Amino acid sequence: MSHQGNVLQRSGRWVADHVVLGLGVLVLVYMFVPIAVVMLMSFNDNSGSRNVYAFQGFTLDNWSNMCGPDGMCEAVLRSIGIGLAATLVATIIGTLASFALVRHDFHGRAAMNTIIFLPMASPEIVMGSSLLALFVAGGFGGKLGLVTILIAHVMFCLSFVIVTVKARLAGLDANLEQAAMDLYASESTTFWRITFPLVFPGIAAAALLSFSLSFDDFIITNLNAGQTVTFPMYVWGVSQRGVPMQVNVIGTIMFLVSLLIVVGNMLATRRKTA
User: Fold this and answer.
1) Which of 83, 102, 199, 200 has the CB geometry, 3.0–4.6 Å to 214, for a possible disulfide?
2) Which domain holds residue 204?
3) What is the model's pTM?
4) What would the pLDDT profile of 180-206 be if each residue is shown by its tens digit?
């Protein structure tokens, strides 16, 4: 084989070995470029310009005056509170439902597994309008606010919690629980010392997903909020006049907090397995 043929063969082998890595890098770049733009714009001194995506100059004023625009911090705190409450309720109910669907055989379980996917597959406008019709029919038409938002968020977060925790439970090795009970551990001791620690990563992942979905939701919230303003609704409202740079600061903080939680969980998992 000629030297040119050897070079082509080695080149083809190198491309074949690194094509997956290259595609992965491209996907990551595609995903994180918008986040990088948000982080960059959080330091943008737009000086009142309506072209909020033009970088006018570097400044730290956006970070030192995060609550500059009227009502923004109130909307952020309101979204965080709703997200935490919806996450807590949806995680508890969804975890219990996951154990029931995985560990118990009852009439209608197959139908329940199918129905659970419907809120995830349905467009948000369909769920939002359906919940609004339900609230109006139940006499809450003139009382839309924090309570109706919380109920709506729990409704669409439940499906994601159940699916996530179910996947963790389905991959759990039942021999571990049987071994613990063979060593005379009671059912409660086996659950809290064996089952729950193994399922907890799935529960934590479901909780993080629920909070992200709740904090980010606009369509369902807008239909069922009444006069209550959450952070996504605030951003939508001010976008008609020009988005303040502090919105990018809030987005950057939320991303960094999520990143710290994920990295911390990875480090803790590595320490346990080391």
Assistant:
1) 83
2) 75-243
3) 0.83
4) 887 878 888 888 888 888 899 889 989
